[in-house]
Specification:
globular
Length: 120
């Protein structure tokens, strides 16, 4: 089995359904005896340019370990889901379990905000 990092851009109107969308893909991986190493919801973010006439999208990061057949099944599921705007699948050499730079940035911002409110 190989390690992959997947970034999904989900339609912003699907915010309430995002957990069920992610769970559906996680279920595909688990049923194929793959492993989920990391799942991160980056939330709604501004796009650099409009995609399908949208200026925002909801971002999700998955680090998984699956076979090529399962990856093909996932890729097909991404393509046929209208809520998924874009996908990026990258093969990695090993399992990445540390928080991504996006999540580290969010945690730093939260810590700064909490410290700033205590001083006031």
């Amino acid at each position: 089995m190989r390690h992959y990092e997947i970034v999904l851009m989900v339609h912003p109107d699907c915010n309430e359904q995002i957990s069920s969308i992610i769970n559906n893909y996680i279920e595909i991986v688990v049923n194929a005896r793959g492993k989920i190493h990391r799942t991160e919801n980056w939330g709604s973010r501004q796009l650099a340019y409009p995609v399908k006439k949208l200026n925002k999208a909801y971002y999700v990061l998955l680090n998984i370990e699956v076979s090529q057949d399962t990856l093909t099944e996932l890729n097909d599921a991404f393509r046929f889901n209208d809520a998924i705007l874009r996908t990026m699948i990258i093969r990695t050499k090993y399992a990445i379990i540390d928080p991504s730079p996006m999540m580290q940035k969010k945690e730093e911002n939260r810590e700064c905000h909490v410290i700033g409110t205590q001083n006031n």
